[in-house]
Amino acid sequence: MTHQALIDLIGMIQVQRTESQTLELKAAHIGCPKRLYDTLSSFSNQDGGGILVFGISEQDSYGVVGVYDPQDLQKKVNEQCKQMVPPVRPVFTVVSFGEEIVVSAEIPGIDISERPCYYGGVGKTKGSYIRVGESDEPMSDYEIYSYEAFRKKYEDDIRVNERSDESVLDREAFTQYIERIKLQYPKLSRLPDADIYRHLNLVVQGKLTLVCTLLFSLYPQMFYPQYTINAMVVFGNERGIAAEDGARFLDNRRIEGTIQDMLAQSLNFLQKNMKVKTIIDKESGKRNDKPEYPVIALREALLNALIHRDYSIHTQGMPIEVIMYSNRIEIRNPGGLYGRLTVDDLGRVQPDARNPVLARALEFLGITENRYSGIPTMRHESKEAGLREPEFKNSRQEFLVTFYNARLEASPTESSDQERKILEFCRQPKSRDEIAHFLGFKSTRWAMSGFVSPLLKAGRLRMTLPDTPKSKNQKYYTA
Q: Are the CB atoms for 403 and 298 separated by under 8 Å?
């Protein structure tokens, strides 16, 4: 950092009067702060590192109080840096600001293969920190593990399922897969079947690996109860909103089975619960059904979640979540982006593979291309559907994909097929139960929230008892 850059930074601090994700302030006018380890760790463990500025006091309204001795300060800060694992190499800058001296120490972010950086005096578990806003927070066991898993190339997708044996295999599906492998690689077929299973990381000494359990066992959840997809449709745009009768979900399902089963069932769940618009061509009169969300994009997001989620013991109790709100769909999978990959890199660089054996097996099954085309496909399909680009958010614990729908006002030539059916059905007044039964719903909640209420707001349906809208005798008719 140049002298002028540090002077400019001091001026900015006095205007903004706050610390930040990359900035920590220490007074140091009496002596060197004795415990910098937490900040040294958190800055080292984030891309871009951070800056410690000595000589500014938060307690004195962010005034410049100076440092007691710039030379001794640098020496003692460096001594603390040497106690970090790996050692931290600060870059110091010293400037005069008015009558005081201010010192900055730039702490570089270390490569992800060396993280976490921690204070050697207390060890990795207690000495590893992460920066959250202006605070240094202890790393969780999982955050520490996620760095180690990348550095040591842990292979969680092929860990042995000690409670299993070959009796739990779906023998037909497993045999078809092995035969497909043999056809593609004739030399491999010369080996005994037991050796093929072992070399493919499927069965080891009669025990199934995790990937084999997830793809070819009769019921994977007998071993891993939370390796599921929890799918739900909620009221409104936030969780916690309840219906008049207290119900919190319009639809709620725990999806189980093999990865192939969960992919198909979760996609069916979304298709069942999304609206479908029918567009009538003015010239030809032809009908074209347009789903609320692009199905191909949703499939890619679900598949990515199933392939790239963290399958370590640290996340074994965490299911994938698929949540449909009125304005968006969220797909959350345990474990953030793996390795050096960032959100900005998605779809643009070849990523490190967290579960390479699983990804390759699904490629052989014809379920995925395994060519890193999923993110570009999601973006392209959303654009083609006239929707905003999906959002991707990453943390050490979770990766989130959000799709937003396009809520266009219905017109005479473009309106929901269900809405037209309801308006036709309600030419004679109908009750809530009658409308729900007509639409094929066992409960009235989805019919009211998804269809009747919007039509009421639009003035296309009316109530027979408008002064008592919650009356059990209420009926609805076409305006």
A: yes
Task: Quote the pTM value.
Answer: 0.77
DSSP character at residue 169: B
Gap between the Cα atoms of 53 and 20, Å rounded: 12
List pLDDT tens digits, range 390-411: 999 998 789 999 999 864 344 4
